[in-house]
Design a protein that fits this description.
three-stranded antiparallel beta sheet, 18% strand, 146 residues, two-stranded antiparallel sheet, alpha+beta, single chain, Multidrug-efflux Transporter Regulator, Chain: A, Domain 2
Length: 146
């Protein structure tokens, strides 16, 4: 199993031109909120650092996508669980992950759509905002392209 320090996660998920310190602080905040799970017990200080698994790298990548789309951390918890479930199923590999929000600013919802149908599907939805991501490319970005 590959492990990462918080700074390594931040380096992997940071957007071009984004402050590495800002991304690192975001990773630490996601850990405090329980959105990212470190390996083992919490560090007791004295120079020990959190270590994260490759599963945490995938979660951090998804959380960074949510952040870039303006999805607040308070809404990310349920959406992250739904995304994890969808990414675990091989049948969705060639589909698009669609995260959407209703006009009334309700809870973000997660679904999958085939690429050739996503445009028509979006046009039929009574939603206000959409985040659309290639599941295959998302998995490739964290080394899970098999």
């Amino acid at each position: 199993m590959t492990t990462f320090l918080a700074s390594e996660l931040a380096e992997r998920i940071g957007l071009p031109g984004e402050s590495p310190v800002r991304v690192l602080n975001r990773v630490r905040n996601w850990t405090k909120l329980g959105l990212l799970k470190p390996i083992g017990d919490r560090p007791s200080g004295g120079g020990r650092a959190f270590l994260y698994s490759d599963d945490a790298l995938l979660d951090a990548t998804v959380l960074q996508l949510f952040h870039a789309a303006g999805i607040p951390d308070t809404d990310a918890t349920r959406a992250l669980v739904d995304v994890r479930e969808m990414l675990a199923e091989r049948r969705w590999r060639d589909h698009l992950l669609v995260v959407s929000r209703p006009h009334d600013f309700g809870t973000w919802e997660v679904g999958v759509q085939p690429p050739e149908k996503v445009g028509a599907w979006i046009n039929r939805q009574p939603k206000r905002a959409f985040v659309v991501v290639s599941i295959r490319r998302l998995l490739e970005s964290v080394g899970r392209d098999k």
